[in-house]
């Protein structure tokens, strides 16, 4: 415990942990600081992905964690005063939830930010594949006009848009796809009964059924022990020849090697991946995979989305420091 000087407890602190590689936040913590004013001192700590957590973080009363640095069981045990770990985002797979629970530390996330951005991005990747925007752009910039990819282009209302996971973002993607004229079908064993009727879409009982009918498979489920590697060699082989795969959820849900092999073999017509397993791409061979669009785990990005994410996380940290109930707890 930190020392007490003349009977006065040291001020509470909130540490914002951000990967050094990505400048997601600002040194001034311009969004978080006003929310925490008068409650806690705020600092931004920049770390490489495998850096040990410094005392500045281990001694904090609350930690706001960006995607990247992992909170392992050892880190959980070393958090001396922490009343909450707040994942700045939807996913919480970077935190050892069980170890945090054993240490008495609530782990919270921000599940309701960026819904519009990620759903928009999924449809943007889908439309780019269907309308072959990047090959056509490259052809035009070669001063050609051959439209060599016309055989890959399809009328959207003849196609089935398959969704894995009908949560907030999956639902938003379903509504967008339906507006474009797709037949929309989803698989989600946890979705409320009858939700497909409310949305005007269709449901199937198994992933295998979805793979058999989807012309585009769009991933919108969280990364858990059950979903890690859920789309692998067998599932990709079961997809329709020429189908598209879109992933704006988590890279480790989809095994990249069979995806890239299926793209090279022509079994998949294309893939739009905002996230990849073991991201980023690791080799020139991976980057040269045909009919592949990759977008740097950027689907959540927008100035509006950042404010929408960072403000609630600061409010949760404020509540934790004040000893008030927290929300969006995932452990």
Roughly how many Å is the radius of gyration?
Answer: 22 Å
Mean pLDDT: 94
Structural class: alpha/beta
Task: Note the overall shape.
Answer: elongated
Query: How much of the sequence is in beta strands?
Result: 15-25%
Largest sheet: 7 strands, parallel
Helix content: 25-40%
Q: Compute the separation of the termini in Å.
A: 25 Å
Order of helices and strands: EHEHEHEHEHHEHEHEHEHEHEHEH
Tally of DSSP helical segments: 13
Query: How many beta-strand elements?
Result: 12
The strand line-up of the biggest sheet is 8-7-6-9-10-11-12
- Uncertain residue segments: 1-7
Characteristic terms for this protein:
331 residues, alpha/beta, five-stranded parallel β-sheet, 12 strands, disordered N terminus
What does this entry show, briefly?
With 331 residues, the chain is α/β, with parallel strands linked by helices.
Describe the model.
By secondary structure, the protein is of the alpha/beta class. It contains 13 helices and 12 strands. It has helices spanning about 30-35, 55-60, 75-80, 95-100, 115-130, 135-140, 170-180, 195-200, 205-215, 235-240, 255-265, 285, 305-320; strands at about 15-20, 40-45, 60-65, 85, 105-110, 160-165, 185, 200-205, 215-220, 245, 270-275, 290-295. The protein has a 7-stranded parallel β-sheet, with helices on both faces. Strands 2-1-3-4-5 form a 5-stranded parallel β-sheet. Helix 7 (about 170-180) links the parallel strand 6 (about 160-165) and strand 7. It is elongated and about 70 Å long. The model is unreliable at about 1-5 (pLDDT under 50).
């Amino acid at each position: 415990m930190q020392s007490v000087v003349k009977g006065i407890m040291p001020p509470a602190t909130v540490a914002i942990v951000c990967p050094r590689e990505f400048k997601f936040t600002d040194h001034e913590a311009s969004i978080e600081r006003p929310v925490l004013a008068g409650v806690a001192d705020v600092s931004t700590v920049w770390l490489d992905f495998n850096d040990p957590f410094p005392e500045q973080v281990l001694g904090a009363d609350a930690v706001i964690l960006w995607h990247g640095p992992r909170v392992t069981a050892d880190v959980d045990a070393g958090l001396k005063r922490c009343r909450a770990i707040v994942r700045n985002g939807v996913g919480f797979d970077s935190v050892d939830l069980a170890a945090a629970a054993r240490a008495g530390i609530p782990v919270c996330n921000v599940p309701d930010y960026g819904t519009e951005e990620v759903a928009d991005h999924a449809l943007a990747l889908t439309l780019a594949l269907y309308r072959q925007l990047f090959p056509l752009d490259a052809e035009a910039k070669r001063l050609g006009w051959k439209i060599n990819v016309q055989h890959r282009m399809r009328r959207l209302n003849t196609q089935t848009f398959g969704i894995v996971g009908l949560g907030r973002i999956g639902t938003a993607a379903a509504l967008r796809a339906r507006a474009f004229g797709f037949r929309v079908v989803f698989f989600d064993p946890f979705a409320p009964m009858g939700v497909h009727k409310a949305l005007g879409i269709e449901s199937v009982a198994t992933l295998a059924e979805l793979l058999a009918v989807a012309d585009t498979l769009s991933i919108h489920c969280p990364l858990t022990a059950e979903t890690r590697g859920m789309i692998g060699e067998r599932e990709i082989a079961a997809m329709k020849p020429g189908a598209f795969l879109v992933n704006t959820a988590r890279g480790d849900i989809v095994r990249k090697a069979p995806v890239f092999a299926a793209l090279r073999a022509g079994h998949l017509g294309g893939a739009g991946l905002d996230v990849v397993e073991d991201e980023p791409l690791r080799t020139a061979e991976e980057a040269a995979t045909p009919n592949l669009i990759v977008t740097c785990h950027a689907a959540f990005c927008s100035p509006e989305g950042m404010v929408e994410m960072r403000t609630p996380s600061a409010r949760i940290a404020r509540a934790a420091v004040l000893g008030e109930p927290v929300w969006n707890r995932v452990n």
